[in-house]
């Protein structure tokens, strides 16, 4: 993948978008378009209300996490500012390719207010990295103990194999000078979080709440579609799909999420088509649930007197967050 990192930022974005579209097209080729239509048809008023409520919980928890991490970097942030900015960030991440434009925007606005774009970018990157690490650990902690008798056991076996591969990859990476440099850079990014026990505890607790709220939304989508599985089984599969959704190769969230949902549901004996239908319903519910962020963007736009547009240029923090994504 060295050729990808050598490309200009705009070219890398184009490659990611093309890859995401290819995954979606490939998924349609395998399961057909009917599951996508079924996912859309399953939506109702109660599913939308539930998704909005769970999204509010996830946003509140994520905003608290960001506020806690920012304080560790010496950049104060009020609760109201963090909550509104995180809603805007989630909306942009959901509707725009790549999944990081919203993070660039909130880092830019926060850093400009304190005249410290560098620290604001590091705080946002550290907050996202910490949240993703907690999500991975939580997912593995739930998947690995799955027993042989469980219908979801194949997901546990695959997770175990992925853990072994990841450990081997990290060990191999640590043997190279460039690899050690990357690992040390990630550690330095997280040091303000890891060095303070109360901050670390707050980050873990809020991250677990974020994952739980998003998983609950996925369960709502599964129940709406009418999948032949209980809420517990849907919750386990949701963790895998959420992990796939975090891969920065998507178009508004679409891409690996649908392909992984199809594979996970198939392995669990629920059918690949059902997985795509649930993933489709979940994707649409996610967009609707973060719609308050669009309202926040419009309000900010009309309040702005500097003519920077809704997002601002964001180039300084865009480079920092792009580097964080490339190091994964």
Characterization of this structure:
- With 328 residues, the chain is mainly alpha-helical.
- 79% of the residues lie in helices and 0% in strands.
- It is built from 15 helices and no strands.
- Helix 4 (45-72) packs across helix 7 (117-143), helix 4 runs antiparallel to helix 10 (197-225) and helix 7 crosses helix 10.
- The longest helix is centred in the middle third of the chain and has 29 residues, at 197-225.
- The chain starts with a helix and ends with a helix.
- Residues 1-7, 305-317 and 319-328 have low confidence and may be disordered.
Key words describing this protein structure:
328 residues; mainly alpha
Q: How many individual β-strands?
A: 0
User: What is the N-to-C succession of helices and strands?
Assistant: HHHHHHHHHHHHHHH
- Which band does the percent of strand residues land in? under 5%
Structural class of the secondary elements? Answer: mainly alpha
Number of helices: 15
Global Rg: 20 Å
Share of residues in helices: over 70%
Overall geometric form: globular
Between the first and last Cα atoms, what is the distance in angstroms? 11 Å
Oligomer: single chain
Mean pLDDT: 79
Low-confidence segments, ≥5 residues, pLDDT <50? 1-7, 305-317, 319-328
Largest sheet: none
């Amino acid at each position: 993948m060295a050729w990808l990192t050598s490309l200009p930022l705009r070219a890398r974005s184009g490659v990611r978008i093309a890859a995401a579209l290819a995954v979606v097209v490939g998924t349609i080729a395998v399961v057909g378009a009917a599951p996508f239509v079924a996912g859309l048809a399953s939506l109702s008023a109660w599913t939308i209300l539930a998704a909005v409520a769970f999204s509010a919980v996830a946003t509140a928890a994520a905003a608290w996490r960001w506020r806690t991490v920012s304080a560790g970097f010496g950049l104060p942030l009020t609760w109201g500012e963090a909550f509104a900015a995180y809603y805007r960030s989630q909306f942009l991440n959901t509707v725009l390719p790549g999944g990081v434009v919203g993070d660039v925007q909130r880092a830019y606005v926060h850093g400009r207010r304190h005249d410290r774009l560098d620290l604001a970018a590091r705080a946002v990157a550290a907050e996202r990295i910490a949240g993703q690490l907690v999500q991975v650990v939580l997912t593995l902690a739930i998947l690995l103990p799955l027993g042989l008798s469980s219908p979801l056991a194949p997901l546990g076996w695959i997770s175990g194999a992925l853990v072994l591969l990841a450990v081997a990859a990290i060990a191999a990476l640590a043997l190279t000078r460039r690899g050690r440099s990357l690992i040390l850079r990630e550690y330095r990014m997280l040091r303000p979080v890891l060095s303070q026990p109360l901050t670390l505890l707050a980050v873990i607790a809020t991250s677990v709440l974020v994952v739980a709220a998003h998983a609950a939304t996925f369960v709502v989508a599964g129940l709406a579609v009418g999948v032949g599985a209980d809420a517990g089984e849907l919750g386990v599969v949701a963790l895998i799909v959420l992990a796939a959704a975090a891969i920065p190769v998507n178009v508004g969230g679409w891409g690996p999420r649908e392909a992984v949902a199809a594979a996970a549901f198939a392995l669990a004996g629920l059918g690949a088509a059902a997985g795509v239908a649930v993933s489709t319903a979940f994707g649409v519910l996610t967009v609707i649930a973060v719609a308050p962020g669009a309202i926040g963007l419009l309000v900010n736009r009309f309040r702005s007197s500097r003519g920077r547009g809704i997002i601002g240029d964001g180039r300084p923090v865009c480079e920092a967050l792009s580097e964080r994504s490339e190091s994964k």
